[in-house]
Amino acid sequence: MMSLTKLLVLAICAFIVWKLFAGDKRWKENKAKEQKEDLVASGEMVKDPVCGAYVSRHGDIRVRHGDVVLHFCSYECREQYLKRLEGEGGGKDGDAQA
Ligand SMILES: [Zn+2]
Prior knowledge:
This protein is α+β, with helices and mostly antiparallel strands. It has two helices and four strands, in the order H-E-E-E-E-H. The protein has two domains: 7-42; 44-88, no CATH class. Helices cover 55% and strands 14% of the residues. A two-stranded antiparallel ribbon has the order 1-2. The protein has a two-stranded antiparallel sheet with strand order 3-4. It starts with a helix and ends in a 10-residue tail after the last helix. Residues 48, 50-51, 53, 72-74, 77 line the site of zinc ion. Residues 48-85 form the TRASH domain.
């Protein structure tokens, strides 16, 4: 009967270890989320105005729009944004004036 007790102890140990790892994983996920929120709050992460994804402020895919620099997750999003700007035809002098 000694072995059964041992088995039980082992099972409990395994359960505790599993619990610890599961908790650790959740904690890490929370931490990653918090870090991302911190980055967003501090301006290190900026929102892609086209698809809403968060991208690094140091990313290469960007467009200067007046004083504002916009960042995009992909060149596709950048193209879409530029096309949208063209479509709006906002107050540029000299272009296609009737
Ligand atoms: Zn995007």
